[in-house]
Design a protein that fits this description.
- The complex is a heterotrimer of chains A (445), B (308) and C (368).
- Chain A has 20 helices and 13 strands.
- Chain A is of the alpha+beta class.
- In chain A, strands 1, 2, 3, 4, 7 and 13 form a 6-stranded mixed sheet that branches. A 5-stranded mixed sheet of chain A has the order 9-10-11-8-12.
- The N and C termini of chain A lie far apart (57 Å).
- Chain C has 2 domains: 4-224, P-loop containing nucleotide triphosphate hydrolases (Rossmann fold); 229-367, Beta Barrel (OB fold (Dihydrolipoamide Acetyltransferase, E2P)).
- By secondary structure, chain C is of the alpha+beta class.
- In chain C, the strands form 4 sheets. Chain C has a 6-stranded mixed sheet with strand order 6-7-8-3-9-10, with helices on both faces. In chain C, strands 13-12-11-14-20 form a 5-stranded antiparallel sheet. A 5-stranded antiparallel sheet of chain C has the order 15-19-16-17-18, with no helix packed on it.
- Classes of the chains: A alpha+beta (445), B mainly alpha (308), C alpha+beta (368).
- Chains in contact: A-B, B-C.
- The interface between A and B is large, with 47 and 41 residues.
- Chain A: Belongs to the bacterial solute-binding protein 1 family.
- Chain A: One of its GO terms (cellular component) is cell envelope.
Chain lengths: 445, 308, 368
């Protein structure tokens, strides 16, 4: 009996230790793999066509840098990837490089688990002036560059040129102001019986578009110069600029020229491609795919502004690459090498023409492939021009807060309430208040 | 005379005690694997959740400040949380009775002895083989207002576009419909199993007595099926309270929080907004809500159950 | 009270193989009719066809002279008791007994009255509020009977109602059911695999084998004049002794050279036949009798009687049944004799040879 029991104990102990030793092996990320290469784990959120292109670029890097091996791992959407990063940050499982969307900037800085790339910039005297100035603007916090910009996009107005012709509009003169937008939308809206078969305009229920439409008017999202002049404590997006955006949506929805596409990017693009809507706002990163897939001619234009308001430009969307802190010097060096590679004009040129994200390094636009591609897809150039004309003010620098995801949920809810006949001012005020509470909670931490 | 007796009796007490200790130990050893698993995957997370619900946390979920019951107080005053409770209760009311009743109807039909009934039994239970994610994606395409098949069919009848997932008044119902569809397979299969367990001579006896179908259903089938019905209702109820997948895929809690059921709200709070304290507090409240509902169901529902 | 008639009835489940072949029988009003046979012989199927629980593949079923093939069970005006009693576990004894009476448009008072009557008759009065699971097997059986009684249907069908009871209770219920049937004067069709039940309860019975009726008649007629070897061996316990033999003039020649001389009753044949003798007709020979010597193989002393198994031939053992207790041991050789009139002769194919008529009277006389 005794023997049996102790044997059992032994067995359990052995299984447990076997399990734990196994998991040890699995979690350990050796800085060098079997071939003596330095391994760089790269977490990203690029799916579909974007992932294919990214993998190509990584393969090319691995071939040209025999001592380094970059392993790209897809981790879902930006939000999902960030959630996963959050659980492993500071442990051995943490990736060497982490791609995080622009609104996660403040969050990453505050996490304390990342190594600012400024260190390497200083060490090597890396020239950041070659970058697009707006991009430098966005990622410079407290005079430091924390992360390496990688994929940047801006919002654009995408429209169906064939529908424009059909409605008697000039396909080469897209609407630039709110009143032109309303006018065009009215003409583009087609009804059959009691049903609307084609709507004029649509905006995805996503906080980013609201932020951009605010910034293009020079409106701030939060106080303290969008949180760049000290911690933001109050949301201010319910000013006149924000109200104009909400009024626009409300008015157009009431007139029946605005279509509610929900929160899903794919649904929105499906609605455009199936000619359910004639104009909508999209990210420049989606431009290439839309042009390729739409069964009609696609036009791309600037974000419209309210009448009589000077255009200030757009905030850089997209994402940047962050380096983990608690890893070996060697790995950091390898990661830095990869980051630099990504910013070279050649890679950026390829990235630009294959995706529609624009180059963080303007020298890329002089590359031959960009020139030929722009001839084929003149629409791509629009995104670049819009960014170039952007004025470097706090509004277009973008807000710096940790609670962006939460705040966006509140803004989305406010947008959705417009379709239910809510008062734009009340809806906006409520979203502001809820963001304030989130800010207050976050500042307590 | 005495010597052998005392030798025999004196060690017997410690020996017996020793054996008792060993028996207990042996029992524990047998339980150990499940105890370890339960502790790691159930008890520890549960206690940790309760613990966290009394704290404000940082972004990694580490408690930084004890706040007592503030998380709970804030939740109970928060209109968004009250909306979540409302959405959850509505969702439960929409899905549970409908899936059980529908599955019961299908099971009653499929229990008839007809040619080719096996085919229908397979059809009716087939949704059980579909993952929540796969079925949600299918429903998402069907609900799509621009390219979805439902609106295409409706337009044939001259009904104008319905924003299935975008209209706050309809979204929860749309999600419920797809949930009912997903649940029916499992519920159907269990109920059919229950029906087939009923002694056929009871029906033959009823046939000879000549009672009507409805009388037989009311007086024979339902009472004898009651243990199974009770089981599926309880399971569906708990399941319904914990719905997450279809909400995440179809609506992400929107529009206007109309489908932001508590579990989804917990997920958003913890993993998007990094408010682990508040999320834990919601989880604790949900736990007690399910506990109470299940308790009430056992207390009142079980009275009508006839175990054989 | 109505007559039940089956005319050339066939039953097939798959359309190819018949489980019931060409069955014709007429059951008289007030009769206790037993369907008996080994399991799988189709007796329950016949009962269920009469009840209307199974369709009739071809042929006609008449109740009271009216064809009822297509009539649903409830309109055939009969009651049925199932082997497992088919009691509703969630209803009380009273509710079980009156279940279905509402359909017959019987008033609540009348229902109550009938229920009490039936309960009284079967000694269930104290249990009316109990649930079936609180009752013993015998009590449940009675509840099932009571449920059949309260319908006042003139025909009652019973499907092996006693097979779940222990031997003692079974004997008691046998006589109770028989008495009840007489008292109520109903027509009873009773299915069993137990030949003792059939013998003791039936007015008439039908022996079934592989879906075919083997013989229909009063129990003693069948016992004494089995129409074939199947019936001969199925009815009676221990069964009739059978052995192959050849007839050569006045000699019966068995295998291994045993021969018996008969003086009168030999069938007019020299072919191979089958000889049958009931165990009670094999006696210990007196010195004056014609006898044969056989070796005893086994002896079972049952108190009132003794069963002696002996070697007829090397491979064939017969059993003799003697009343009283006998002090005989295995291995002994004993002289035995068989009344000439007790022999039954069957054709090789099992059918009884016509010759048997004279032995009828003799057999009957012996038993009375």
């Amino acid at each position: 009996m005794k023997k049996r029991v102790s044997a059992l104990f032994l067995f359990i102990l052995m299984t447990l230790t076997a399990c734990s030793s196994q998991s040890d092996e699995a979690t350990a990320t050796p800085s060098e793999n079997k071939d003596g290469k330095t391994e760089v784990i790269f977490w990203h959120a690029m799916s579909g066509d974007l992932e294919t292109v990214l993998k190509e670029i990584v393969d090319e890097f691995n071939q040209s840098h025999p001592s380094i091996e970059v392993k790209p791992i897809f981790q879902g959407t930006y939000e999902e990837a960030l959630t996963k990063f959050n659980t492993v940050a500071g442990t051995k499982d943490a990736p060497t490089i982490m791609q995080t969307f622009e609104v996660g900037t403040k969050y990453m800085i505050d996490s304390g688990k990342i190594q600012p790339v400024q260190k390497f910039i200083d060490e090597e005297n890396y020239d950041t002036s070659q970058w697009e100035k707006n991009i430098v603007n966005y990622y410079t916090v407290n005079g430091k560059i924390y992360s390496m910009p990688f994929n940047s996009s801006t919002p654009v107005l995408i429209y169906n040129k064939d529908a424009f012709k059909e409605a008697g509009l000039d396909p080469e003169k897209p609407p630039m102001t709110y009143s032109e937008l309303k006018e065009a939308a009215k003409k583009l809206t087609k009804k059959q019986g009691g049903q609307t078969t084609q709507y004029g305009f649509s905006i995805l229920n996503y906080g980013w578009f609201f932020e951009e439409m605010l910034a293009v008017q020079g409106g701030l999202y939060v106080n303290n110069e969008n949180g760049r002049n000290g911690n933001a404590t109050k949301a201010v997006f319910n000013g006149e600029e924000g109200l104009r955006v909400f009024d626009l949506i409300r008015d157009m929805y009431k007139e029946g020229t605005f279509y509610n596409v929900g929160q899903n990017w794919d649904d929105m693009r499906a609605a455009f491609q199936s000619k359910k809507v004639a104009m909508y706002l999209d990210s420049s990163a989606g431009v290439k795919t839309i042009i390729d897939n739409a069964p009609f001619e696609v036009g791309v234009s600037y974000l419209p502004v309210p009448d009589g308001v000077e255009r200030q430009g757009v905030i850089i969307g997209g994402a940047s690459l962050w380096m983990a802190k608690d890893i070996s010097e060697k790995q950091q060096k390898a990661a830095w090498e990869f980051m630099k590679y990504l910013s070279t004009p050649e890679v950026q040129a390829k990235w630009h023409v294959k995706t529609g994200y624009f180059a963080i390094n303007p020298a890329a636009y002089d590359e031959e492939i960009v020139k030929t591609e722009w001839e084929k897809y003149p629409q791509l150039k629009v995104t670049v021009d819009q960014l170039k004309q952007t004025k470097p003010i706090p509004a277009t620098q973008g807000a710096l807060i940790t609670v962006f995801p939460e705040s966006r949920q509140k803004v989305v809810k406010a947008m959705e309430s417009l379709y239910q006949g809510a008062d734009p001012e009340e809806a906006l005020d409520r979203a502001t208040e809820e963001t304030n509470r989130a800010l207050e909670m976050a500042n307590k931490k | 005379m005495n010597a052998p007796l005392s030798v025999k009796s004196s060690p017997s007490v410690p020996v017996r005690r020793k054996r008792a200790v060993w028996t207990t130990l042996e029992g524990i050893v047998y339980l150990l694997p499940s105890l370890i698993l339960f502790s790691i995957f159930l008890f520890y997370p549960m206690l940790k959740t309760v613990y966290l619900s009394f704290y404000a946390t940082d972004h990694q979920g580490n408690p930084v400040q004890f706040v007592g019951i503030e998380n709970f107080v804030y939740l109970l005053k928060d209109v968004n949380f009250l909306q979540s409770i409302k959405a959850t209760l509505l969702f439960v009311c929409y899905t549970v009775p409908a899936s059980v009743v529908l599955a019961l109807c299908l099971a009653l039909m499929a229990n008839e002895k007809l040619k080719g009934i096996g085919l229908f039994r397979t059809f009716f239970s087939s949704t059980m083989g579909m993952s929540v994610a796969a079925s949600s994606v299918i429903w998402m395409f069907m609900y799509n207002p621009s390219i979805g098949v439902i609106n295409k069919v409706l337009s044939l009848f001259g009904i104008s576009d319905v924003q299935w997932l975008l209209d706050p008044k309809i979204a929860l119902i749309s999600v419920s419909i797809s949930t009912i569809w997903m649940n029916i397979g499992f519920t159907f299969l269990i109920l059919l199993g229950g029906l087939q367990n009923i002694d056929p001579t009871l029906y033959e006896s009823a046939r000879i007595a000549g009672v009507s179908y409805w009388y037989q259903l009311r007086k024979v089938t339902l009472p004898l099926l009651s243990p199974t019905l009770f089981f599926v209702t309880t399971v569906s109820l708990i399941h319904s309270f914990q719905t997450f997948g279809q909400i995440d895929i179809l609506t992400k809690g929107g529009p206007m929080d109309a489908t932001n059921v508590i579990v989804y709200s917990i997920y958003k709070d913890a993993f998007i907004n990094y408010n682990f304290g508040s999320a834990s507090a919601q989880a604790v409240l949900l736990f007690f809500a399910i506990l109470v509902v299940t308790f009430l169901q056992f207390k009142f529902g079980e009275r009508k159950v006839h175990y054989q | 009270m109505e007559q039940i008639e089956l005319v050339h009835v066939y039953k097939s489940y798959n359309g190819k193989d018949n489980v019931i072949h060409d069955l014709s029988v007429s059951i008289e009003p007030g009769e206790f009719f037993v369907l008996v046979g080994p399991s799988g012989c189709g007796k329950s199927t016949i009962l269920r066809m009469i009840a209307g629980l199974e369709t009739i593949t071809s042929g006609t079923l008449l109740i009271g002279g009216i064809e009822v093939n297509e009539l649903p069970p409830s309109e055939r005006n009969l009651s049925m008791v199932f082997q497992n009693y088919a009691l509703y576990p969630h209803l009380t004894v009273e509710q079980n007994i009156t279940f279905g009476l509402y359909k017959k448009k019987i008033s609540k008072q009348e229902q109550k009255k009938r229920c009490l009557e039936a309960a009284e008759m079967l000694g269930l009065t104290d249990f009316l509020k109990h649930k079936p699971r609180q009752l013993s097997g015998g009590q449940r059986q009675r509840v099932a009977l009571a449920r059949a009684i309260v319908t006042h249907a003139p025909i009652c069908l019973m499907d092996e109602p006693l097979s779940n009871l222990d031997a003692k209770l079974r004997a008691k219920m046998r006589s109770e059911i028989r008495q009840l049937q007489r008292r109520l004067g109903i027509t009873m069709i009773y299915v069993t695999h137990d030949q003792v039940e059939a013998m003791t309860m039936a007015d008439r019975m039908m022996i079934l084998h592989e879906g075919r009726a083997q013989q229909i008649g009063a129990p003693l007629d069948i016992y004494n004049h089995p129409s074939n070897t199947f019936v001969a061996s199925f009815i009676g316990s221990p069964p009739m002794n059978l052995a192959k033999a050849k007839v050569l003039e006045s000699l019966l020649l068995f295998d291994n050279g045993r021969a018996m001389r008969l003086h009168h009753h030999l069938p007019p044949s020299t072919q191979q036949i089958i000889v049958g003798v009931r165990p009670e007709h094999i006696r210990l020979a007196k010195p004056s009798d014609d006898h044969f010597i056989a070796k005893v193989v086994n002896v079972e002393v049952l108190g009132t009687e003794t069963l002696v198994t002996f070697e007829l031939t090397k491979n064939e053992h017969w059993i003799a049944r003697w009343s009283g207790q006998w002090n005989i041991h295995a291995g002994e050789k004993v002289p035995l004799t068989i009344d000439e009139t007790a022999f039954l002769f069957f054709h090789e194919n099992g059918q009884r040879l016509d010759h048997s008529i004279p032995s009828y009277a003799a057999g009957k006389g012996e038993h009375q």
